[in-house]
Structure formats: C-alpha cells, structure tokens
C-alpha cells in the first residue's frame, strides 16, 4: 500500500469519532416548520479521507476480486438494491436528503470493498497505532466533559457539541443520585461515543487505551454498548447471544425513564405503520422523519422528529420488504465469510442496533459498520483463523 494511502487510513481511524462537518443549505431539511438535523446533507472531515483513499485506489486500477460465486451474487444484489433505492429516493418528498443518504451508502460500500482488498498486515499495523490514540483522546476529552458538566472548546474542535446542564435535549442521567450530563467526546451523542469505545476496546490491544476507554464507556451509561462489549465473552458459546439480547431488551425497560420508553414505543409503532402503508419499497432512504408526523405526534419538551431507535425497523420502513430482503441475503452471505472473531464487531453493532439507530444514520456509526463489514470480508475462513490479528 502506498505510504500516502496508509497515512490517510491512519488519519481516518484517528478522526473516526469526529462530528466535524460542513452543513449544506438546509431549506430541504424542514418538516412542518421544524429543522430536522437528520435531513441536512453533511460533508464530514472523515469523508475527505475516504474519498482520497478511494481516488488513489481507482487510479491504481485495483479491483476487488470476485473469486466466489456467492460474492458475485451479493454484488449483483447490491447493484439491484442501489438502483431500486435510487429511483425511490428521487420520488420522495425530500429527494435531496434521500439522494445524499444514497450517496453515503455508495461511499461506504466502496470503502468496504477497499478494506476487503487491502486489509493486510500493514493495515493492522495502522490500526494498532491509530485506534488506541483515538480512544485516548476521546476518553480524555469525555472524562473532562463529565467532571466539568459541559463542553470544553466547542464545535470547531473536531465537532465537539456545545452543551451544558441547561441545554435542551442534552443527555442526562440520575443514577448517581442527581442529574448528571453524560460525556459526548466529539460525537453527536454519548451512545455513539460508547459504541465507538466498545468496538475499540475489543479491537485494541493497548492496555492503557482499553482501560481508559472502559472507564469512559461506564461514564456514558450506554446499556447497549455495555451489552455489546459482552459479545466477545459469550462468543465461544454462540447460543448465549440470544439470552444476552433478551437481557438487553428487558433491562432497557427498567433503565430508561417512562417518557423515553413511551417515545421509543411510539416510534416503533410508526415504523410498522409506515411499512404497512408502503410494503414493497418503503417510504425512501432517510425519509422516516419526514413521514413521522403523519403517523404519530411524539410527546416531548420540543418537537421530536427522530428515526426509530431500531435499525431493523428503520430499514423495513424506509426500504420495504424488497430492500430489507436484499440486505438480509447479502448480510447472511457476509456472515458465512471469514473467521468468527473478525465477525464479532459486526455482531456488536447488530446488538446495539436493536435499541439505537446510529449505526445507519450517523457518520461515526456508518464508519463503524463499514469497518466491521470490511473486517469480516477481509479474512477467509481457515483452520488457523480463530485468532484475531494482534492490534
């Protein structure tokens, strides 16, 4: 791999949790007078690194090998999925937001192909350097935010959210006896930070970064990320994953406040109703918040327009039966490839996706998903593939 591409990949991993982005004009991101952040087209700092990596790859005429028939089939299904969702995107009430999200899916799919073609010892070496550093600086910032109960610098510091204890809608917890603002790092939500930390703790072999990352993960109080971190412990007995999922869903009913549970339930019902009204092709990519007011009025202190907190219901509502069927076929084939330990990151995100939407809707989550799928595809099954490469 060219030295410049290595540098770009290392920078991408280091800045993976960054929420810094250029926000395109927002006239198409308004729903019934409310500006919806999820509909705003954004060009992230990390997009620069991905696009540069892909351009260098294309210029070298490298192509991902299609050695196995099932991979060829998956690629054909993927092309069908992109064609269907592109046409559907152009027919939505907010086509700019839908098309921008479609472009993001294309970008991440190409990035997965690049990882699959290039993930060798030099990439693992870059991960071993960049990932612990990313955990260290995110954890240090997050811990400082927790004790200060506000942000430190502001958005131009790699996307750090502006917040304090009085900010409307800020994530808080009362488990310590009084309301405490949860740490964000430079991510858009403590749950996103927790998801990044959970996967990094598993992939990293740095004792310092794993220890500091675990402390920070506990401060986020993200139940889904903590449950996901247990996946490596139960991986030797795959049947234990089912009880873990049941435990997560049950525990969430007791750790979330009544208002939060009610909102999640309303979003779930709205997602099912959207699918029933648009069974084949769904409402279109990134259109859940556009259609939401037609199905329910979420009770909250401010107008609540968010995607359903379940990636499976979100896919069903936005891509319909045809879209989610294609995704499931491709995904099942993905899980048949590679060794079990390299599949653990994607399984961790699958667990998180039961109670949150960010693996699909936010840049950091999409990158975690892309890297996880790239890891799964990069390592063929072999008798000696049970060991995760030392990071």
UniProtKB/TrEMBL annotation:
Domain of life: Bacteria
Topology in membrane: Multi-pass membrane protein
Localisation per UniProt entry: Membrane
Taxonomic path: Bacteria, Candidatus Chisholmiibacteriota
Transmembrane intervals: 43-62, 69-91, 97-115, 212-232, 239-256, 311-335
Pfam families linked: Wzy_C (PF04932)
Official protein name in the record: O-antigen ligase-related domain-containing protein
Signal sequence extent: none
Any single Gene Ontology cellular-component annotation: membrane
Family matches, as InterPro entries: O-antigen_ligase-rel_domated, WaaL-like
PANTHER family xrefs: TEICHURONIC ACID BIOSYNTHESIS PROTEIN TUAE
Domain O-antigen ligase-related: 198-327
Keywords: Membrane, Transmembrane, Transmembrane helix
């Amino acid at each position: 791999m060219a030295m410049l591409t290595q540098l770009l990949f290392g920078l991408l991993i280091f800045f993976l949790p960054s929420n810094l982005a250029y926000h395109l004009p927002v006239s198409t991101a308004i729903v019934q007078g409310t500006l919806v952040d999820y509909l705003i087209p954004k060009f992230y700092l990390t997009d620069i690194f991905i696009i540069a990596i892909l351009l260098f790859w294309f210029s070298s005429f490298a192509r991902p090998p299609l050695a196995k028939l099932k991979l060829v089939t998956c690629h054909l299904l993927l092309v069908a999925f992109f064609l269907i969702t592109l046409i559907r995107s152009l027919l939505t009430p907010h086509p700019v937001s839908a098309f921008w999200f479609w472009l993001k899916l294309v970008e991440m799919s190409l990035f997965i192909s690049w990882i699959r073609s290039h993930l060798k010892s030099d990439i693992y070496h870059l991960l071993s350097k960049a990932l612990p550093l990313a955990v260290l600086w995110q954890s240090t910032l997050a811990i400082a935010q927790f004790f200060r109960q506000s942000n430190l610098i502001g958005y131009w510091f790699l996307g750090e959210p502006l917040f304090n204890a009085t900010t409307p809608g800020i994530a808080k917890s009362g488990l310590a006896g009084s309301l405490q603002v949860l740490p964000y790092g430079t991510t858009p939500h403590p749950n996103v930070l927790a998801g990044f930390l959970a996967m990094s703790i598993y992939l990293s072999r740095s004792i310092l970064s794993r220890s500091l990352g675990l402390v920070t993960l506990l401060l986020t109080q993200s139940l889904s990320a903590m449950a996901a971190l247990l996946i490596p412990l139960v991986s030797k007995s795959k049947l234990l994953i089912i009880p873990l999922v049941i435990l997560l869903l049950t525990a969430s009913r007791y750790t979330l406040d009544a208002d939060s549970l009610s909102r999640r339930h309303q979003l779930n019902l709205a997602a099912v109703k959207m699918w029933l009204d648009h069974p084949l092709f769904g409402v279109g990519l990134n259109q859940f918040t556009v259609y939401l007011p037609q199905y329910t009025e979420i009770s909250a202190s401010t107008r609540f327009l968010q995607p359903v907190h379940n990636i499976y219901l979100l896919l069903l509502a936005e891509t319909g039966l045809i879209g989610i069927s294609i995704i499931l076929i491709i995904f099942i084939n993905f899980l048949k490839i590679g060794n079990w330990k390299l599949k653990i990151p994607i399984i961790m995100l699958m667990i998180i996706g039961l109670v949150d939407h960010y693996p699909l809707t936010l840049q950091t989550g999409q990158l975690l998903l892309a890297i996880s799928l790239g890891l799964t595809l990069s390592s063929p099954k072999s008798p000696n593939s049970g060991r995760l490469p030392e990071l």
